[in-house]
Amino acid sequence: MNGNLLLRIAVSIILLTHSIFGMFNNGINDFGNLYLNQIGFAPFGVFLAWSIKLSHVVTAILFLLNKYVKLAGFVTIFVLLMGIILVHYQEGWFVVGGGRNGVEYNFLLIVVVLAIMYPNGYKRIKSN
């Protein structure tokens, strides 16, 4: 058993809950139409929103299966970084308390995804 199983389960739950509810309450379409399209991604906002959320579902499944973890991790980190750039940075650091909707949650998720991707740390391959 991989030593990061608990992290993989926790991140999978977060990614699934963050995605699945939006699939049933029109949240993904609203994000695409009312936000992404408005900031310059029209007419692809809804497609991008669905792509983001479906990537979260796929990543969650792959993390649970412990398959293609690095590929899924890179995609997820890219999505989280774009979320910081497009949505959260302008709100500051704090999600709650000292502010609202800031970057701290995405920052933590990025670090945890990196820990999942590299459970033994990053080791450079030496060539002879």
Automatic annotation (TrEMBL):
Family: Belongs to the DoxX family.
Compartment(s) where it occurs, according to its Swiss-Prot or TrEMBL record: Cell membrane
PANTHER family: INNER MEMBRANE PROTEIN YPHA-RELATED (PTHR33452:SF1), OXIDOREDUCTASE CATD-RELATED (PTHR33452)
Protein name as annotated: Putative oxidoreductase
CC terms in the record's Gene Ontology section: plasma membrane
Keywords: Cell membrane, Membrane, Transmembrane, Transmembrane helix
InterPro entries to which the protein is assigned, alphabetical: DoxX (IPR032808), DoxX-like_oxidoreductase (IPR051907)
Topology within the bilayer: Multi-pass membrane protein
Transmembrane segments: 5-24, 44-64, 71-90, 102-122
Any Pfam family hit: DoxX
Keyword DNA damage carried by entry: no
